[in-house]
Amino acid sequence: MRRHISKSIPCLTVSLLMVALFTGCTQTDNKGVESTPSNKASATPAPASGKPDTSKPVNLTMYLTNPKSDDIQILEDELNKMLKQDINTTVKISLLTNDAYKLMLTSGEDFDLAYSASWLNYADNARKGAFKEITPEMLKTYAPLTAIEEKAKLSSGYVDGKMFGLPAPITNYYYNLFLVRGDLMKKYNAPDIKSLDDLGVFLDAVKKNEPNIIPFNLGKNDSWMLPAVFYGSNDITAPGAANSTSPIQLRKGDNSLKLNYALDMPEVVQFLKTMKDWKEKGFWAKNTLANPVSIGDSFKNGKSAVSFAGTVDGANASYFDFAKEHPDWDVRVFPAFFKGSVDAYSYSNNSMVIGAKSKNAERALMVLDLLRNNEKYNVLSKYGVEGKHYTLNAEGKISYPGPSFQGGVWGVSNDKFIKTPAVTMPNYADLINDEKKRYKANPLVDFVLNTKDISDVAANIANLYTQYGTPLFMGFVDDVDKAAETYKQKLKEAGVEKYVDATKAQMDEYMKNHK
């Protein structure tokens, strides 16, 4: 999906992460919610030839949440050359921060195309009328290649029985990884990192011997990493969310789908105590809760002994970036999930939508059909310009002569057009095989909690995580047991029991409709 941590784990602000987690990370097709009048689909009939009329030139607006980069202009220029020739269309691409994206949707701005995702509250925004419904007739006429895609890859675009977005047809395993300073591992005779204890041994050695390095230099937006590593290694997950700091959790092997309060699970409390111990030992900084620098940037700058990646390909790209700048580091890559099964993200983790007020929805859908299913368009949208951003060898394997392409349209990535790296880190194949071997389908991967009737409760719970959960998971409490009890009491006062009841009822309904 993405080549760097800054893009492989997109929800790196705690506030946005928690909104996504507590309003649901994916979407469902449960019945019962009416679409708003402004969201009704309207499709211009196709001419008698059966092909859409593109005689009128159209300029579309597209909003993405990519980091700022000159590559965006390169992408726009190259894309418009192709679109103008093929469907008499051009696209103006604009970048928005996550907060600006939220404001754009809530303000009801007129736009044609935008990136969306479960972590950007795709389902809730669809229910609120931000996106135009995409009907089967529209797909058949204006996106015929998309219309014949596997239903499983399109199903997560449905919200309450109607399609409001096109999920990227790419499989992304939930398989996080550590990048570690191998030179320091060798220097202090640290073991390969196959468990949390092994990681602790390495961090301890760095803390005691490298005064200029903070062993695990987390930033203020990196708190999600700690529960992610724990839950990812213990077959525990939140309903419909692969990576979650939700107050309620499921055990993957429990076919009854019993909901558990996370803070009542003994292994969770023990993990919190371990994190408290790590914080006291100085494995991360005292100002971590205010540190604006991500762990990835700290690692790159030689200020952290460990970094993080969200995908094997992201780790592979980072590996070579680091190796180029610091060949003496002997960077090594280990799975951050030490045991247990591996989930795959819902396809809705990356999506594209059409604005509810778009006056050119049909042409926008034609653009998406090309971006998703035409190799020339898809490769441009993911890898950039051949010769500038990447090269292909005789076997079709890809290399990167310079920095990573920062102009991608992540919401259209397609499994069919993924390029295998020509050069890989030493254990690349082993890691790819490991994630596939350990993959186990999550029956709730596309489930999302509809918080319409408990919106105040969900908002309060999200705020409580910021206030009480983050310090607890990062060890910034005086006493773990007392802090956990306080957090539990605050959750109870906020109505967490009502939240659990709603989740259970909707889960049961979802499972009944997805047998």
UniProtKB/TrEMBL annotation:
Biased composition (Polar residues): 30-42
Signal peptide: 1-28
Keyword Signal: yes
UniProt entry keywords in alphabetical sequence: Signal
PROSITE patterns: PROKAR_LIPOPROTEIN
Domain DUF3502: start-end pairs: 443-512
Residue ranges, annotated region (Disordered): 30-58
A family per Pfam: DUF3502
Protein name per the record: ABC transporter substrate-binding protein
Classification of source organism: Bacteria, Bacillati, Bacillota, Bacilli, Bacillales
